[in-house]
Amino acid sequence: MDRKFRERWFMLLMGSFLVVYIIWPLAGMFFRADWGLVVSTSRDSVVVGALWRSIWTAAAATGIIAIFGTPLAYFLARQDFKGRSVLEAVIDVPIMVPHTVAGIAVLMAFSPKAPAGAMLVKAGLSPVNSHLGIILACMFVSIPFYVDAARDAFHGVSPRLENVSRTLGASFPHVFFRITLPLAKRGLVSGLIMSWARGVSEFGAIVIIAYHPMVAPTLIYDRFATFGLKYSTPIAVQLILVCLGMFVVLRVLVSGKRRDGAGS
Amino acid sequence: MIRLADLSIDLGEFVLDNFSLSVDKGEFFMVVGPSGAGKTVLLESIAGLRHPSGGRILIGGRDVTGLPPERRRVALVYQDYALFPHMTVEENIRWGLRFLRDPDPGHVEGLFRLLRLERLLERSPDTLSGGEQQRVALARALAVKPSVILLDEPISALDPRFREDLQDYLSRINREGMTIMMVTHDFNEVLSLGHRVAVIVEGSLQQVGDVKTVFREPANRLVAEFVGMKNLFPSSVKGRRACLEGGVSLVLNGQQRVGECLIGIRPEDVMIGGDLLEDTENVFSGRVVSIVPRGMAFEVVFQVEDLRLTGRMLSSALVREDVHPGGECRVGFCPEAIHVFKGDNPI
After folding, report:
1. B216, B221, B225, B231 alpha-carbon torsion, rounded to 10°
2. Which CATH architecture has domain A46-262?
3. Best mutation site among A80, A167, A188, A258 for testing chain B: the one with the most B CBs within 10 Å?
4. Cβ separation of A163 and B82 shorter than 8 Å?
5. What is the ipTM of this complex?
6. What does the pLDDT look like over B50-83, one tens digit per residue?
7. Does domain B230-340 have CATH number 1.10.10.10?
8. Where does B2-223 sit in CATH, by number?
9. A107 alpha-carbon distance from chain centroid
């Protein structure tokens, strides 16, 4: 056995407690789930609808975050200025705030009585108990996950690469799209995954602004409250399968791309 | 080709102030100074990557102070090469061609040959050695036919065995007509490559001039220390004689200014032994204080009355004259080797 490894086995021993702590409950749920019920609920249009709604609303929220968050992350990675740490702390606030509180805050900001909500209503959009409401709640909780990851990704791209391409004749947009983005891609995609995953798993904030239409976590809670554990577990199992599937697919895609990029 | 007029650059911790110098077309111009003197920032300012806080930059007679980097036709090569890791060698070199109005494919092929890159074109930059990466970075810069290339310490980071190689490439590129401005902290590189040199110490331009002149006749103590003129003595000069503190008297080369001033002698000009010293009047008896190896040569410190004289000599000379620490030996230098500083302040 590797000498270094022998010296570190104690660390591993301690740390493995946490790994087991993640795997144990999830695995237990799979083993004890009533698979007959899992299959039959997967044909239930309400369940399928809720799962699908979770997937696309989280994706929509992540898309909006990417549009506005990418420039923000680039700015944070490149510009040194007074108050940057304050701005970075503000971006991380959604991680600290209890999700129900986040939900209440978003609801108050976008309720038809508030100016922003009134504007949306005027435009024919309903921010409460709607898909829009779900997206608004998802956005709030997902922002830090994308922006932080994207900032770190841009930080890993040497400004010298950008400088050199400028002196070779490229304009700033050209450099950004041809040099910076491709080199930051892995970190950016990983941020997108995190942001999306956060949206899919959101319950507290969503349930306050939009109990209906139900996303998967709301449906799971609803079934748990009305019918008990037996009937909520099958949906939970499906949600986990969907999330893990998505997670694995995206990770494989990204790491595959990296091998192309590093091509030897 | 490049003219900097009263350029000021704010570096945060200090300021490069009121900088004026000009680089001629086809010249190999060196900027030298200790690490952290703001040399990279100077290059970035000329390339348009930083805004100077004052003054103007002219390239080829055109005022480019307000122009973005892509419109200056100045190529910058960084010390760490800054090759695009997601592209092959060839894609790296061809990156700038798409922005040229009339790309010349023959020119790039010529660069592949000149820099011996033909067999590396399909490789990824991270599989190359330092010397190869530097050649790719050079080719990438030259491919866009810039009017000048700026080199940021291109040699210092290389393995010693690649250094001479790269020096040869650089002087060949320069002989073919390219104007080069190169920063370095190593005066040896200046001696082997540069035509003229600017010395920056402590944020200000100390001296600009012919490389040999700066080497032999530094403008002040800071430059003298930087170019390795180790023997600096305050003295009072009268006619052809310089009296040093402690009473040692030296014969100078020709009539010099009268008064208190600093004189300097390069360690390479200090000689030992009988034969070599017959023709010079500045011969003393010295005691050897220490002998320290410095690369191929040895640095020998002699005590001559109250003076400490540092010489640089080859081991053959040390063996011939039986020089050993504590031993006595005859030591001296020609009157021509003594540089009398022009500045008024001898300290």
Report:
1. 70
2. Orthogonal Bundle (1.10)
3. A167
4. yes
5. 0.84
6. 888 889 999 988 999 999 999 999 999 999 999 9
7. no
8. 3.40.50.300
9. 20
